[in-house]
Each structure stands twice: as structure tokens, then as C-alpha cells.
Fold this protein.
Amino acid sequence: MRNVTLKGLLAHKLRLALTALAIVLGVAFISGTFVLTDTLNNTFSVLFGNVYQKVDFQVRGVAQLGSGANATRNELPESLLATVRRVPGVEAAEGGVEGYAQFVAHDGKAIQTGGAPTLGISFDPDQQISALRIIAGGPPVTSGDVVMDAGTAQKYGFTVGQRVRIVSAGAVRAFTITGIAEFGSANNLAGATLAAFTLPTAQDVVQETGHLDDIDVVTAPGAGKAVVQRDIAAVLPPGVQVVTGQTLVNENASAISQSLSFFSTALLVFAFISLFVGGFTIFNTFSIIVGQRTRELALLRIVGASRRQVFRSVLTEAAITGLVSSAIGLGLGVLAALGLEALLRGFGITLPAGSLVFEPRTVLVGLAVGVGVTVVAAIGPARNAVRIPPVAALGDRQSDSDVSLRRRFAWGTALAVAGVVLLAIGLAKPAIQLVGAGAVCIFVGAAMLAPVAARPLSSVIGRPLARALGVSGKLGRENSMRSPRRTAQTASALMVGLALVAAISVFGASLSRSSTASVDDAISADLILTANGSGQVSGSVPAAASAVPGVTATTTVYRSQFELQNTLATLTAVSTQHLAGTLILRMTAGTTAALARGELLIDSTTATSKHLSVGGAVPVRFARTGSSVLRVGGIYQANALIGSYLVSAAFFVSHFTNPSLAALLLRTNGSAAADKAVTNALAPYPNLQVQTRAQFEQTQNASVNQLLGLVYALLGLAVLIALIGIVNTLMLSVFERTREIGLLRAVGMMRRQVRAMIRSEAVILAIFGAIIGIIIGTGMGIALVSSLKQQGITDTVVPASRLLVFLLLSALLGLVAASWPARRAAKLDVLAAIAAE
Amino acid sequence: MVLPSQTLTGDTRAAPAAHSVDLRKTYGAGQAAVHALAGITVAFERGRFTAVMGPSGSGKSTLMHCMAGLDRPTSGQSFVGDLDIGKLDDAGLTKLRRDRIGFVFQSFNLIPTLTAAENITLPVALAGAKVDQEWLGYLVKQLGIGDRLAHRPSELSGGQQQRVACARALINKPDLIFADEPTGNLDSNASADLLAFLRRSVQELGQSIVMVTHDPRGAGYADRVVFLADGTVVGDLERPTADTVLERMRTLGA
Ligand SMILES: Nc1ncnc2c1ncn2[C@@H]1O[C@H](COP(=O)(O)OP(=O)(O)O)[C@@H](O)[C@H]1O
Ligand SMILES: [Mg+2]
């Protein structure tokens, strides 16, 4: 029996290659994701290891909000440095600060990092401690000096001795580059830019004069580290702690892997979607293979093969296929990792470079998933193979019995209904696993039901083709109708891909419309000033902007983290003076006047979910001022700009150190001259964006669209695998119909007409899959959107024209998928029809 | 009714419907070479029913394929009318088969997804031309398949399938029909019906037919029998009967 399996495998290399390709791509995607995230993890670990390698201890504020590397901590008094230095066993101690500082490139634009921070830090003059290694020039000496990271210097063409302007929370200032530095051996801190100043200058730039963020300590050789740590701890005031360098490395590593885990989960979801679609393709291929081998398998039964042997023969074939293709997929995973990185870079997400990491886990998961999917997908066809009665070897191929069709229909309906229920519960909860399970059930159910629709739908879709292409189109249409099950199975893979694409485009269109609507609903200001990238709006901007003639109202917007009812949340603050002229707050309870009294405003959805009402008291905590209780002064309808919690700017400034200005809202007299004057007045701030409401809206939309673009690109692989499925089915059909095609050629069908026939069939298949997919996906998208009403997606938009484009694209892709099988069919030997017996 | 014989002009009537000159077809090379056709020069006259006989493997099918533009000979020429089909490319050969030649094979003559009517008119549809309804009606009536036109091949008996194939072969009023053992899978009644129809179409319509057969009784329907053996013509018999054919076969040692 093993021999039969192996011979079966070898006899059909081509169809196996195509089946395998679906798995290869899916596994490559999975292993690529692992390789990429493992590599990033490793890169960051190495980087932070470098940064803290010389530091034995760090003295820093106790975490006020959050924990680990992302915690908010209070500053230390500068005087603490001397105290720490006096502790016995401390060889060296240096205080440092860190904050926002953004270089301005030679072209006058603020340098952006695509997400990574733009850091300003103090330069440790003590090379024993400093993580920076100067590779050109020297350290900063005067208050006009800066050291630039090598990555930025290379990329933007800066050299020692040049002047560079730097944007900070204060004013924009020009500095002289005295040196270029690396981190250990890395020229750049994972995409971040870095400006290092003398300590006093850094304190000035990041607005922490007289304060330090932390003190790095190196112990004397021979000193007992545990003793030194205890002695340092003993001299620290309350609210300050001392931790080891290793703790810092660990904290940073775990923060990184946490933020990467979201990213890798997202990529893995797409990888599994691809494999799921691949599963359909495999199921289909094995079904066709078993169908084609009915006689052969029945003959095996006649000569004495048991049902179990037949079952195992088919499953073994699947397992071997899965194993080989997973192995190839793993190899390609490295390429996939590079491809994913390039894709993400194309969408503006910069990742640091590092040598690729291939963990054993990647191999295990890749093989397990690849083989698993293949074998599971082959179980159904294998069971069908077992049901073939030995007499089938004698007669012609048997058609499906009514019983199995009816059972299939019942199962399909049950699965689809269960899927809808799961999806609904999952969306309502919300529980993403239930949503996923629901979607899987819906897709499998729909695939089981699709054969019912295949014949009538193919007939309708094919009619115009038959009319346009004559007999070729007609034959293509007939071929797509002759085996509804095969048509449906082939189209199912594309159905899944297009359903997801359609769901995403419904979601995207609704999100766009909602955010567009909400900008006009949220802001009445004429101009919105924000910092680009991860920058901050300088504190001197509000004064400069309000001084511009034509500006009638100015509102400052601050944003930062705080704790409310013991959970971390974002707090927004606005200056109250001209509020009515710039911001639209539709109060459902209380008034905006409460802001001025230092009370908290809450948006209505949050108020409902947290059971808060006007007059209620909420426990809150701020990093600087600690715990207190805020009175709820009003409730407003969800506002796109503000978020959930709002206080006055005056309140905010008194509760935060270095309050960071997030945006500035300006009301002007409406003249173009005023807009221009504002832009001119703010020219000295190269990191500022001055946008009209329409432009602001556009930026919002652009970022939504960019994200959607990335999602489409990632779904593209699933669609590609579905197309491979179509190629595969067509190829198998062409082989199956060798005699028929030969006969057609014998009685006068031109090669061109043969190609048109195969293409018609492919287009019908593709459109059939696309139509069902788009219908299901639109339903899913609408369900998704309506579940997000609370999150501010208030409009449901079905982008009909875009969906139509997807439909046409599918037809086009069907054409592409047909090109190889069509060429193959056209080249078939005319004699094949007659020569065979 | 316009019959094929009446459409033919006098001067082409003189030339045979098809002929070959020193046709050779060799499979394989060197020691293993098989000479399926070892230099065949033969002519099939217009308006006549020619049977081709010979032992299995004697090259009957190969000859038919090479003369009908289904296969290319290793050397030699074959003509349909006075057209040298060796000079045609694939598209030219396809057009030739579609418009000027009819085929009836032993089995698998019909496209399973098309109805009987669609199968009959397939060559016309492939040419993108209009079906001559009068002619179609005549054929259908002659073959007695009028009540089967909407059926698919799987719903037809073997004899009906072959009759549909005959109708298809005739639909374009071809110069020549090639039939390779068309009755090979039929019982004697169905065979007799089919052969009688072929005979009639030669007699009444002036159709030219070349038919490969094993059956001396089948050959009895023909005007002439050409005998093949080992890829060469070994005999020629005018106005055959089943008996004379059998006798000739005996003398040829087949
Ligand atoms: N494709 C082929 N490859 C090799 N030999 C072939 C091929 N087709 C036919 N032959 C050989 O050519 C000879 C003639 O075959 P054929 O014309 O089919 O004979 P017939 O139709 O008279 O039975 C036979 O010996 C056959 O084995
Ligand atoms: Mg033969």
C-alpha cells in the first residue's frame, strides 16, 4: 500500500506542485512572521544590552503610572547625584535626562522617524558609563554643542562642525555638531534619532532644569554589588529606587516584546487566513484526485485493499505533501520575513536592521501547521475514497448520492447559522476569538452550501460570456456547470479572500465617513496646528499664533496619561477661554462651565459603560500629584478630537510636569490672508503642521487608508492562494478532459477558441466565488461596523463601486489564473482524443 | 435543396476528393523505428464510398489522421482536393477540418456538455457561421434523431450517438468524411442502419466517404475497398461484396 501511495504521488507531480504551493506560501508567511518578530526582538535586546551594558545600577523615581520601561516616573532633584556619589563602592555616577528633541534637516523640514522616538538626552562625559561611543569629533562642551547619532548623520548628510537646528518643547535652537556617536556597534537606536547635549543644555532642552530623570552608577572593582545597592537605597529619599542594570535590560526587552506581540499576532492572523484559504484549495484538489482515481481505488479494493488501507493511502499522500511543502515554506520564510519588512516599510513603518533569527519554534509551528492543515483538509476526500464501492471499478464514475447531498446541505446550514451566532456574540462582547471562530464556521458552511448555488449562478454569469464568445464561451459555461461541487469548492477559496476584502472595505469606508463626519462635528476651528510625527508643539507656539492678525480665538489642547478608577487612560485638556469658538461639545448633561471649576467632563458612551453621572465623584491619580477625587461636571456626546475624558488646561498644567502641548485650535476671520499669516508666523517651527479642517480630515483619512492598504496587501496573499486553487482545478480539469478537448480540436476548434473556453470557465469560477464572498463579506462588514457604533463609527457605508471594482478585479485575476491551463489545453495533442483506445 | 454534388463545379470533379503521394510515417528511430506508413500513394474519388481494411496495426488510422490533417506525416504529401495540406499551419489545418472534412470516430464522438443538436452544429458554431436549418432538418430526418435533439450524449444509445456524429460530420457539406471504425461499438442492427445511411449519403447526396472497418459486411456497403498491410497498400477491390472481401482477405493472409 505504501508503494501505491508513493507511486500515486510521483505520477502526479504537477498537481502536487500546485497543491503544495498553497501550503508553501502559507507556511512561508507564518515562518516569515516569526523570523521577523524574533529578529526584531533580538535586535532590540542586543541594543538595550549595549545601552545598559556598563551600568551596574540606576537610581530613578518609583513608577507612578504603569510599570517597567513604559512607566511614568517623577524626576529626581539634581542634588541627589552628589549623595549617590558619596556612597562607598560607587566608582562613578552620572545624572541624565531624556526628552523630546527633533533635528531639522538641511531642507528645513523636521526629521521624522516613522514612529520611533526623537530623543534629546544628556551626554555622559564619563566614558565608563556612557552608552554612546563617539566615532567622529568630540563630546559636547558648551551649551551650543550637540552630538548626533551616526544613523541620522549618515541619512541626512550631517558632519562634524555643521550647524543643525533642533526643535524642542521650548524654542527652536541651532547647535553645532561636535561629534557623531554610535551605540556600541549600532549606528542608531532602532530608528530613533538622538541628540546628546551637555547635562545643563539637555535639562534646558527637555525643560527639566535642576532635575534628573535618572542616575547611572558604576561600582568600584572589588566592591560587593549587593552591599553597594543596599547602601545606595539607604540614602535615597522616599519615592526613589535603585535597580540593577539587568533589570533595565529586562524591562526594556519585555516592553519591546509586548509591543511586538501585537504586531506579530496581527501578522499571524493574516498568515492563518492564508493557510485557511490554502486548506480549501487542498480539500478541493484531493476531492478531484479521489474522483479521478475512483476506478483505481475501487480496483485496489477488488484486489483486497481494506478501507483502512485506502484511507491511510490518501492521508499519507496528504501528509507527505504537507511535510515537503512546509519544509519548503520554512526555507522561504526567510524571504518572507524580508518581504514583510519591505511591505511594512512601504507603509511607513520603519524597523531596525539586524541579523535574521531562526528559532526552533518557527520550524515546529511551521511544520505542525502546514502538515496539520493539509491532513485535516484531506480527511473529507479520504473518507469519500473509502466509500467507493469495489464495483465502481467496473462502471462509470458515480455521482453523489442524494443522501450525502442532503446531509451536506443540512450540515452547511447548521454551520453557517452557528457561525452567524458566534460572530454576533463575538462582536457584541467583544471577543475576538469568537469572531474568528464564527467567521471560520460561516466560511465552511458557505462552502458546503455553495454547490447548490453553483449551477444557477454559473449559468447566469456565463450567459453574457456565451453570447460574446460564441461556442467557446458556451462550452466554458457548460464546463463550469457540469460539476457544481467542483466549481463551488474551487470558488470557495476565493470566496474567503474576497469576503475578508469586502468586510475590510465596508469597515474602511464606514470609518472614513464616520471620521470625516466627526471632524466637522468635533471642531469649529478654522485651523488645526499639530506636530508631525512623534513631535511636540513648542510651548511658545500659542503666543505666536494668537498674535497673528486675523486670529480671533485660540484653544490649546494637552494630552497625557492618568489613572482613573485604577486603570490607565488618556486625559485631554483644553483652555477654556475661547472654547466655544473652536470646539464643538454637545453636552447631554451638565455644562462646559464645569471645566473652569476644575471638574471632569466625560463622553456619553464612557459615562454609560462606567455608570458615571453628573455630580458623581471619580478617583483619579496623576504621576506628579498623586491620588485625588474629581467631580464629574458634565457629559458630552462622543467627540473625535477629545476622546473620553476632558479637563481644563489650567487644571492639567497644575497636575503634570512638563505638560505636552498636543494641538492648537485657531479660529480666524476666515480670510485666506489670515491662514497665510498664521503659516508665516509659524515658519520658525519646522515640526508644525498647519491644517484647515478639510486638510486635517484628509490626513485622518489618509492614515486610515494607509492602514487599509496594508491590510489589503496582507490579504492579497490569501487571494493569491485562492487563484492558485483555480489554476490547480483548471489544470486538473484540462487533464481530465483531454479526449474532449482533442475531439473539439479535431472537429475544428481553433487553439484560440480552446483558450477562450478555458478562460471563460475561469472567469465564471472567479466571479462566482467573488460574488458569494462579497455578499458574505459585506454582511460581516456591516455587522462589524454596527458593533463599533459605541467606538464612534456611526455611519455604515457599503462602498458599492469599490466592491464592484473588486468583482471586476477577481474576474481579471481569473483570466490570469486561466492563462497557463488555457495554454496547456490549446497545446494538447489533437490525436489524444482519438488515440486513447 | 442544394446538395453537395451540385455545388461542385465540373473541373474539380475530375480531381479526387483526397489523395496522398508516397506518404510515410515513422514512430521512433533506429532499431526501434516503426513504419506505420511505409510510402502510401492512394486517391479517394469524389462521390464514392471507399472502405479501408487491413489487419490491426497496419496503419489504417494513421493514414486517416495524416490525410485529414490530424497528424503530420514524416514525409510525403497529402491533398484535400488540390490543396497540399502539408503547407498549412495549425490554424489552417483546423479550418480545413472544420469546414471541409467530417469525422466519425469509433467512440467518444460527442461533447458531453452539449445537446445532440448543439453537437451536430458544433463545426458551424466554431466557424461563427449560421446554421442551414433546412439542411439540418433534412439530416435529422434522414437519421431519425429528431426526437433526441435536446438530449445530452449520456442520454443517447450508442447507435444514436453515432448517428448524431454522422449528422455533425455532414453539417458543413464537407469535401470528404473520414470514419474510423464507426460501427466498432455497435450491434448489428445499429451498424446496418448507420452503414445504410452512409451509403445513402454517397448515392443521393454525392458525398465522398472514407471508412476504416474490420467488418467484411461493412465493406460490402462501399464502392471500393483499399487493403493495407504493414503500412503499404496491398490491394484494391472495386464494387465489393462481403464475400469478395472475405476472399480477398484470405488471399492477402490477413
Ligand atoms: N503514437 C504512436 N507511437 C508509436 N507507435 C504508434 C503510434 N501510433 C501508432 N503507432 C504504431 O503505428 C502502427 C499503425 O498504427 P494504426 O495506424 O493505429 O493501426 P490501425 O489503425 O491499422 O490498427 C502500429 O504498429 C502502431 O503500434
Ligand atoms: Mg485504428
